[in-house]
Amino acid sequence: MSRLCKRFLTLITILFVTAAAGYAQIPGGIDVQSMNVDELSNEQILQIDSRIRSEGITMAEFERLALQRGAQASQVRRLTERIRQVRLEGDSAEVEERGQLRPVQRDTLDLFGERVERYDRDSIESDSLKVFGSDLFRELSRTFEPAFNIPTPRNYTLGPGDEVVVDIWGASERTYRLTVNPEGVVRIENIGPVYLNGLSIEEAEQRLLNQLGSIYSGLRVSDPEQANTWASVSLGNVRSIQVAVMGEVRQPGTYTVTSLSTVFNALYAAGGPGRNGTFRAIRVIRGNETVAEFDLYDFLIHGDQSNNIRLRDQDILQIDPYKHRVHVWGQTRRHGFFELTEGETLADLVQYAGGFTNQAYRERLTVLRVTPTQQSVTDVMWPEGGDLTMRDGDRLRVGEILERFENLVEIEGAVFRPGEYELTPGLTLSELIRKADGPREDAYPSRGIILRETDDLSLELLAFDLLDVLNNPEQHDIELMRNDQVLIESIFEMREEYTVHIRGAVNDPGEMPWGENMTLEDAIFQAQGFRDDAAAYRIEVARRLTTDREEPQPRINRVADVFRFSVDENLQFSDGESDFRLQPYDQVFVRVMPNYQEQQIVRVEGEVQYPGDYVLENRRARLSDLVEWAGGLSDYAFPEGARLVRQLEDDVVEEIALLDTMVVERVGTTTNVGIHLESVLSEPGTELDIILQEGDRLVVPRELQTVRIEGEVLHPASVRYDDSRSFASYINAAGGTTDNAQRRRAYIVYANGEVDRTRKFLFFRSNPEVRPGATIIIPEKPEQRELTPQERISLASSIASTALVIATLIDRLSR
């Protein structure tokens, strides 16, 4: 193959691959044709969003681009929703915590539902994978700040930064607000420094009152009965302290909290224990000594805060790795992972899990246990096995009770109280029927059935005679068993529904229920009587042919029995026919009188002597007759522009609507019939003199002097008629055609409703004649549909294949 051919093929291949790749991907490198948004990770969504922002396109432009490149509309909507959700979460990634704004990152979840690196307050995880207690630290909308609006704790230890409020009343009144300085003292006017660091509020009150007694003589601390001045000491603003949260915690570090903060307050500020952190043994280290060990489960389960001590400056919360963690799933009120301490039992675990649900199977609990070499299963009876000591890695599974009843029977059908009943010892069929208040009047008496489960759960059918069971239970009664289903059918269920159908000239035709002794008069009465056009003297009843069911009969030619009757307007039969009774499935036909005809209205408008509505006097009334009824044309009539508007038949309108609903909405349900009124009036009764139909409307205008130009012209307008002007000059009078005009298909609609168009023969074009009142219409070019990405790729593939064939031929010819 020549070098030129090779270059040509290479170019075509590059173009094809580029087109295919360009139309198959969107910003972010996602193949839109096989895209499944639910399988995209959050990182991929963030990458797509980053590309969209970097390319400077809006979300609306992105959606349109994705649809053009072959993406499914549902996937595009789902993708944009996830992008907007990611953007919303990013905008709210700063939350208020501990009185100040702190940036918070999103996080990913591991097996235990814990945060690994990032934090996401909206993360959703399965209940069976959460560690009990972790939810407490997951919702940032909650707050566990220490309460400040409380009485002064008497054991509170003062330190630098605390504010002490001294209120004095009685013979002297004054309030001191004293702040402990870094040296641990407060300064009182006329007294000097008083050392309070390390004292409790109670001790500080005693020292301050002793000092204030030197300047307030009425303040006698040792002899209150002789005092005329009194004082109290309380805590004002509290100081801030620094505590360190270390170990297996989500966000370890040093935190600044108030001096009223407890262990739980600091733990919450740090996000709680991490993936491997303990919830049961959180140590508080003060100096080099462990002063408390906080059990979060005691706090959550029992509300025990005995070890939730108040922290001091430089305290350390040490969270060690957990030692024993077990998994619970099934029919307990709480699911997930639970941390146990050494020696805790299955009963303790069930308590932490909130106990059993009402659907739990408690006779046998399953404990899956890991041994040094393999796994084992332990069946535990409850509550006897509640003292089983749990180990790290154990898994407790609580099953569900069976979806079956141990003492249930059911009765359905034609009884007064169908439903489910208790199976008592020795319960019989007759007793069950009496419990259901007995059979209804329509119960089928000769047969009922019992559906019974056998030992292998297959169904067995037992038939019984209802009358025998009820009237002679000693011989025919049946003892019931668990899960028996008794079915007693209604006689109406055992046959077709009996009906009679009436058609024709009645006020309410249709189907009605048949009853015994139903007459033809009854059927007409239920159909609301005759219409005005009913031929009561000709009523037909068509009846099915019936044969003997016991012996087969040969086929015959007759298919129905037809009876004819004459009934007057009072529903009275002729002599001898009044005792005729209808049978099920009879068809009644009430005929219409042959010469009955409702008035048919036509209308004439415009320049006639008496415009208005007229009734057609005969079936052959014509256009000339209508003009004559209207008194003839007026002196100002323009018969050349007269038109006839005719209603379309209902079936025609339905067919048009099936093809194109927009056509019906635009055109309506009428059509213009082209007429030549002058010729009609000069030669009435000819083919031009159209026979009128109901709803026709004749419009006779005044003399028309304009021509209307519409469609694809620069300025649609009405132009004065001039018989010397040509078809093209009228179009030019409207500014000429637009770039989207289809000039060669121009047509004209005359005032009388006729239409003519431009014709072309070889190189000659023949334009229609222009008359007064006509409308020239220039249609637009048909819209060219843009190729879809798949069509473009297919076209590129075809071009490449054709180019390959051409190049091969050129190469062979060059040889």
Report on the architecture of this protein.
It is a single chain. The chain contains 18 helices and 41 strands. With 815 residues, the chain is an alpha+beta fold. It has a five-stranded mixed sheet, with helices on one face. It has a five-stranded mixed sheet with strand order 16-15-19-17-18, with no helix packed on it. Strands 21-20-24-22-23 form a five-stranded mixed sheet. The longest helix is centred in the C-terminal third of the chain and has 26 residues, at 789-814. Mean pLDDT is 80; it is low at 8-24, 91-126 and 658-666.
What's this entry about, in short?
The chain is an alpha+beta fold and 815 residues long. The chain is 23% helix and 26% strand.
